[in-house]
Design goal:
The chain is of the alpha+beta class. The chain folds into five domains: 4-130, GAF domain (Beta-Lactamase, 2-Layer Sandwich), CATH 3.30.450.40; 138-297, Beta-Lactamase (2-Layer Sandwich), CATH 3.30.450; 301-331, no CATH class; 383-439; 477-580, Elongation Factor Tu (Ef-tu), domain 3 (Beta Barrel). Helix content is 40%, strand content 30%. Helix 5 (138-149) packs antiparallel against helix 6, helix 5 (138-149) packs parallel to helix 9 (273-296) and helix 12 (384-410) runs antiparallel to helix 13 (413-439). Keywords: Coiled coil. Residues 154-286 form the GAF domain. InterPro entries: GAF, GAF-like_dom_sf, UPF0194_transport.
């Protein structure tokens, strides 16, 4: 008969192709000498290097990694790793593995994996040393629970749990199934990473689990002496097919069956009553953790639906009634419908000051945001050329005046007329130059605010006649421009009231009234918008042209459902029309 220690060693080494041989040693209870109790492969001669490494790990109470000496009988031994096995403060023995790989990193990985997987081996050695035939210590139960919680996915955790239970309880196969929607599905098989639900054995296992779940009790086949009669049709079919005896225990959490665990063993070694009781005890400990992991991996929608179905469906009925009331409120209760759109403040009029002639900027006295009064000097242009021109025409005017005075003294009428005409021409040119000199100083035509044009950083910049130098807006006189989306323009009417919230004054709303709806759309950011002009009913002192914000235009009363969904409904209508025609 294969001992639990030998079974663990066989299972572990069969899964690792890098392992060439292995041995487990333990101490004799009477002589306290270390001797091998299990080896792999079967019937292989004892390896002195493996035994030496295992004894060294026990003596040092520390893992050992060594390079064995070259020996004709141990040519496949490239590295040996050995791990001491202890329970509490008592050393039980050691396990040593001979590896074909000479990579030290691979050897260290095997040593770390041995530390994680050695719990089952420690339990088997403890049972052998203490003489127990099926007991599981509290530490083993804690390890089983840690196995279920310490994996990233439920399927991986369930597979590890099935392996742990099969090794700890000395069963050939342990199967774990889940109950969802009233149907069972196989989640994990011990020592089997892959299986298909449609295969005969998994299908029969699922049927046996459903049989135990439907009866909400443990089903054992063959039945134990004194057991109550149970329905064992699926269990009998599985036992005949696989040649096993089995015990299926439902997993119950908070009165709800979440799954089942099936324990199988060869037909000649049926589970004893004490083992059945132990299986039931473990199922009670595992069920809450399995339900917790199952709930954590469900989608938020599935968890919400499960919560609503609690308390016998009462929550679902209350929730349905609440949803019905909410839909009725959205359909029949009217609310104020307001159209939101971006808005900006502009001056009621904008006065443009242009360059009166070609020239160069001499100095700018204001910049955007400055408040000016009528007659204030705003910009000066260079006037050296004009001053020279003025002197030239003054000189010519004086010459012509002197000439026609002399002609008048001589009574030379022809010369007098010519000189007088030239003096008149020089006077006109002089007046023109003087006028240009006056216009080289740009003055404010009205009280207002400079909203565009910053020439303070550009002295000497050339300008041409007609170039815009500054833009003024009158103080305290504003208009509101609202860019309404074309999908909402049909609901905007002249005279409609609304309120404005500016980014610069977020805590204050300004009332306004719509004056005019511009009938021309303007493209902006990939969509069309109509400019709606409105009149502010109050103008705070901090209000300035160029400020931006959000305007809400009142458009009557509509049901809450219509307000929330009309955009989507309109889009769907247009989409359907474009597809169907």
């Amino acid at each position: 008969m294969i001992t639990p220690v030998q079974r663990w060693l066989n299972d572990y080494c069969d899964r690792c192709q890098t392992v060439s041989s292995a041995v487990v040693i333990t101490s004799d209870a009477e002589t306290q000498r270390l001797h091998p109790v299990a080896g792999w492969p079967a019937n292989a001669p004892e390896s002195l290097s493996l035994l030496a490494a295992a004894r060294a790990a026990v003596q040092r109470a520390h893992p050992v990694l060594l390079i064995p000496p070259v020996s004709p009988s141990e040519t496949e031994h490239a590295r040996i790793v050995s791990l001491p096995l202890s329970s509490g403060d008592r050393t039980l023995g050691a396990v040593a593995l001979a590896l074909r790989s000479a990579n030290d990193a691979t050897a260290k990985d095997f040593l770390a994996h041995l530390k994680r997987s050695g719990g089952s081996l420690i339990s088997a050695l403890s049972e052998r040393t203490d003489g127990g035939a099926g007991s599981v210590e509290a530490a083993r139960l804690i390890q089983i629970q840690a196995t279920l919680l310490g994996r990233s996915s439920l399927a991986e955790a369930a597979t590890e749990l099935a392996n742990e239970l099969a090794t700890a309880l000395h069963f050939d196969r342990v199967s774990i199934g889940l109950i969802e929607g009233g149907k069972a599905s196989l989640l994990a098989l011990s020592h089997s990473a892959e299986f298909q639900q449609g295969q005969s054995v998994p299908r029969q296992l699922v049927a046996a689990m459903e049989e135990a779940v439907d009866q909400r009790c443990t089903v054992v086949h063959p039945p134990l002496p004194g057991d109550k009669p149970r329905i064992v049709i699926a269990h009998t079919e599985l036992a005949l097919k696989a040649g096993t005896s089995l015990c299926t225990v439902p997993l119950i959490n908070e009165g709800q069956v979440v799954g089942a665990v099936s324990f199988e063993r060869p037909a000649g070694a049926a589970p004893a009553p004490a083992e059945v009781a132990l299986c039931e005890h473990i199922a009670c400990l595992v069920a809450p953790l399995l339900a917790l992991r199952l709930r954590a991996e469900r989608s938020p929608w599935a968890r919400a639906l499960e919560l609503l179905k609690g308390s016998g469906g009462r929550r679902l009925k209350i929730s349905a009634a609440a949803v019905a009331l909410l839909l009725a409120a959205l359909t029949f209760i009217p609310i104020d419908y307001r159209i939101g759109a971006p808005a900006r403040i502009e001056g009621s009029i904008q006065r443009v000051l242009a360059a009166p002639m070609d020239g160069f900027v001499r100095k700018a006295h204001v910049r955007p945001g400055d408040t000016v009064r009528a007659g204030d000097l705003l910009v000066e242009l260079l006037d050296q050329d004009l001053l020279l021109e003025q002197r030239r025409w003054e000189s010519e005017l004086a010459q012509h005046e002197n000439a026609y005075t002399a002609a008048m003294v001589r009574a030379d009428r022809a010369q007098f007329a010519v000189r007088q005409a030239k003096a008149t021409e020089a006077q006109a040119q002089l007046d023109l130059v003087r006028s240009q000199l006056e216009r080289s100083r740009v003055l404010a035509p009205l009280d207002g605010i400079v909203i565009k044009g910053d020439l303070t950083q550009a002295p000497g910049a050339p300008v041409k006649r007609g170039d815009v130098l500054l833009t003024l807006a009158p103080s305290g006189e504003f208009r509101l421009i609202i860019e309404v989306d074309e999908r909402d323009i049909r609901d905007v009417r002249e005279g409609a009231k609304g309120s404005l919230a500016l980014s610069a004054l977020p805590g204050e709303t300004l009332p306004f009234a719509v004056d005019r709806v511009t009938p021309v759309a303007v493209g902006k950011d990939g969509s069309n918008a109509f400019e709606v002009e409105a009149r502010l009913e109050s103008s705070p002192q901090l209000l300035r042209p160029g400020m931006q914000g959000v305007a809400k235009i009142e458009a009557g009363r509509q049901s809450a459902g219509w307000v929330l969904t009309h955009r989507i409904v309109d889009w769907l209508r247009l989409a359907v029309w474009s597809w169907v025609g």
